[in-house]
Design goal:
InterPro entries: STAS_dom_sf. This is Ribonuclease Z. The chain has 110 residues and is of the alpha/beta class. It has one domain: STAS domain (Transcription Regulator spoIIAA), CATH 3.30.750.24. The protein has five helices and five strands, in the order E-E-H-H-E-H-H-E-E-H. It has a five-stranded mixed β-sheet. It is globular, with a radius of gyration of 13 Å. The termini are far apart. The relative contact order is 0.16.
Length: 110
């Protein structure tokens, strides 16, 4: 797990371990990053399916309830089968766009 920071955004990149291991690692270090928007970059993982993305659902719901964005990046996931409760985009650039749009929505009270 590689953790980078870009302003108020924490970018977590997974390279080798399983998605379950990544979710556990994020939960263990959550106190350090809970005040930032979170991007989980899974682009280096070859095969991502719905069960892998669902692993992030509890963490995503908790983070979004605190008025922070949580975005998963994977160009290998079938976006049509992803649940509406979690944001999955194919590129890092789109993740930044989603965070920017969600910030505007929060500012407007949506």
């Amino acid at each position: 797990m590689i953790v980078d920071r870009d302003g108020n955004i924490t970018i977590i990149t997974q390279e080798k371990a399983s998605v379950k291991t990544l979710v556990n690692n994020i939960e263990q270090s959550y106190k350090k990053i809970k005040n930032n928007h979170i991007i989980v970059n899974l682009s280096s993982i070859d095969k991502i399916g719905l069960p892998d993305i669902v692993e992030f659902l509890r963490l995503s719901n908790k983070h979004r309830a605190d008025k922070k964005s949580f975005v998963v990046v994977s160009d290998k996931a079938d976006l049509d089968e992803m649940p509406d409760e979690i944001v999955v985009v194919p590129t890092l650039h789109e993740a930044y766009d989603v965070i920017e749009m969600e910030d505007i929505e929060r500012d407007l009270g949506f």
